[in-house]
Amino acid sequence: xxxxxxxxxxxxxxxxxxxxxxxxxxxxxxxxxxxxxxxxxxxxxxxxxxxxxxxxxxxxxxxxxxxxxxxxxxxxxxxxxxxxxxxxxxxxxxxxxxxxxxxxxxxxxxxxxxxxxxxxxxxxxxxxxxxxxxxxxxxxxxxxxxxxxxxxxxxxxxxxxxxxxxxxxxxxxxxxxxxxxxxxxxxxxxxxxxxxxxxxxxxxxxxxxxxxxxxxxxxxxxxxxxxxxxxxxxxxxxxxxxxxxxxxxxxxxxxxxxxxxxxxxxxxxxxxxxxxxxxxxxxxxxxxxxxxxxxxxxxxxxxxxxxxxxxxxxxxxxxxxxxxxxxxxxxxxxxxxxxxxxxxxxxxxxxxxxxxxxxxxxxxxxxxxxxxxxxxxxxxxxxxxxxxxxxxxxxxxxxxxxxxxxxxxxxxxxxxxxxxxxxxxxxxxxxxxxxxxxxxxxxxxxxxxxxxxxxxxxxxxxxxxxxxxxxxxxxxxxxxxxxxxxxxxxxxxxxxxxxx
Length: 500
Description:
Blueprint lengths: L19 E6 L2 E6 L3 E6 L8 H16 L9 E4 L4 H9 L3 H6 L21 H10 L4 E4 L15 E4 L2 H10 L12 E2 L5 E2 L1 H4 L3 H11 L2 H8 L7 H4 L37 E9 L6 H4 L10 H8 L17 H7 L7 E2 L4 E2 L2 E4 L4 E4 H10 L4 E4 L12 H9 L1 E6 L4 H9 L3 E5 L15 E5 L9 E6 L4 E6 L4 H9 L2 H9 L5
Parallel strand pairs: 3-4, 3-5, 5-6, 9-14, 14-15, 15-16
Antiparallel strand pairs: 1-2, 7-8, 9-17, 10-11, 12-13, 16-19, 17-18, 18-19
C-alpha cells in the first residue's frame, strides 16, 4: 500500500492506512477499507477445466450454506465456466443451489470478469471507494490480474483457486489470516474458520468419481456444431465482400489499408517527433490495450454518445473491438497508467507544444492535425502481460511511429514489428534518465536505407543530445513487414500477387 505509485504500488500515506468508509446498500450500512473484496469471480480460464477444484468449490459452498453463512450483497460474485460440461456435473452433483445461494450462479460461458467484463459495481460502493481513496480488491480464478484489467475500482486483484474465491467473498477482505482468524459467523453466532468448511480430498474425489463421467463430455460436445436457437436464426450475408454498415457502432471498416498502393513506397523519415507518453517500467498490454467497460467520461464514450447511444448501451471495449474508432479512443485509457508527464495514475498526457493536459487520444489528434510524428518513451519490460493485438494496433492508429524502451516483452515487441512500429532499445546501461531526457524534446530517428536486424540506429533529440539505440527488428521477416508498413499490408500485397 505504501510503495510508490507504479507496478504494485499505491502510495497510500501512513495516516490513511486504517481509513474506513461507511455506506448504505439496500437499506443497510456496511463499511469498506483497504483490502475489502468487491468482486469475486470463478472465471472460465485455467481452473474451470479442473473438476476437482470446481466440485471442491461447490462442496465448500454447501458446507457454508448449511452453517448459515452468506456473502455481503454488495460483493459482485459470479461463475462463468469455460464449458457446458462444468454446469452439467455441478448440477448433477447437487451443488448448484449452494453456489447460487452465495451468489456464484452461472452467468454465462467464456471470458468475463478476467477480461474486465464484470460490469458496473453498485454506485454507493464506487462512491465509498473514491471518497476514501481505497485500495479495494478483486479475487478471481483467472490467469491475469494486471492493473486496471479487472475493474477500475478494484485497484488490487488476486488470482486464487475457485475454493478461495468463495472463501474471500465470504470473508469480505483479503486482509485475513485463515489459520488464526474466523472466516465468518454462522447462523448461531459461532465463529467459523475456513478449515471448518474446507472439503477433504476424499470428499471431493467421491463426488468427482460419481458425477464426472465420459458420457457428459460426449453429450455436450456432440452438440457443439449445432449452435443454439439465437445463433441459428442470425442472418449471415453472402458474397466475397463484406457489406459494411456505415451506421454500425460495433463493426466498422478498418483504416489499415487506406491510401495503400500496390508498389512499395519509400519509408518516411521520423523527424522532430514528439513523445506522446513518457512511461516507466512494467507497462503492461492492459495499460495499453482497451479492455473492460467503457468509462462514461472517456473519448470512446464521447464518440458513442455522438452516435446517439446512451451510457447504458456503451457496452464494453471487448464487444466493440471490431470498431477501430472506439478502440483507438480507448488505447492507453487505463486509469492505472502512470505517465511521467502527469506524475500520477491517469489516462492522460501533456500536449507538449501547448502544455495542455488531455486524454491520450485527444492529444494524439492534436499532434496529427499539425502533421507531427509521435513516439513513446518507456522503461523495462514494455508490453508485458497478455498478448493483445490491440496493444499494437491501437498505438498504430494513434500515429505512433516508434517506441524507445529499455527492454520489451517478447511477443509485444513482435506485434509492434507486425504493425510497422519501430521498436528501439536503449543500449545497455542507458535510460531516458541517464541520458537526461525529459520526454518534452522532439526526436529524429536516423533509419539507414540498408537495414539489418538489431543494428545500431541513432536518435537525436532537440536538446542536442544524440544516442545510439538497438533496432529490435530481430529477424529479416520483421524488416520486410516494416518496409510494407506492417504485416497486414504485406499479406494483402502477397494475396494480390504483388512481388513481396
